[in-house]
Amino acid sequence: MAKDWKERLGVVYSTNPDFGYEKAEAADQETLPPNKQDLRVSLDKKNRKGKAVTLVTGFVGTDDNLKALGKLLKSKCGVGGSAKDGEVMIQGDFRDKVMQILQAEGYKAKRSGG
């Protein structure tokens, strides 16, 4: 019983005698190869006090691979940014340069927005 409480942290009490505690499984997402990725490159100024950022969205894969892609883009552009929640944020308007870098790496990238 001592180990069992960790498995059922989400349920406090159940009156159902047949109730089965379900364990949450961490679903690791496989990273698609670059030619199968459908990335969108756009410029975003909303909620950033007027400062422009280049957003790369649509990445399907693990967080480690997303961070590696973000690091590559940030180093090639020579600016800061972040990579989380399936998108890479690059500080500044680098849409053209990001498109060239992604296409040189073999990614399918499209420019979206204005």
TrEMBL record:
InterPro entries named among the record's database cross-references: DENR/SUI1_TIF, SUI1, SUI1_arc_bac, SUI1_dom_sf
PROSITE patterns: SUI1 (PS50296)
Recorded GO MF terms: mRNA binding; translation initiation factor activity
Annotated SUPFAM superfamilies: eIF1-like
SUI1 domain: residues covered: 46-106
Pfam families: SUI1 (PF01253)
Coiled-coil residue spans: none
UniProt entry keywords in alphabetical sequence: Initiation factor, Protein biosynthesis, Translation regulation
Family assignment from sequence similarity: Belongs to the SUI1 family.
Name assigned to this protein: Putative translation initiation factor SUI1
Organism: Sunxiuqinia dokdonensis
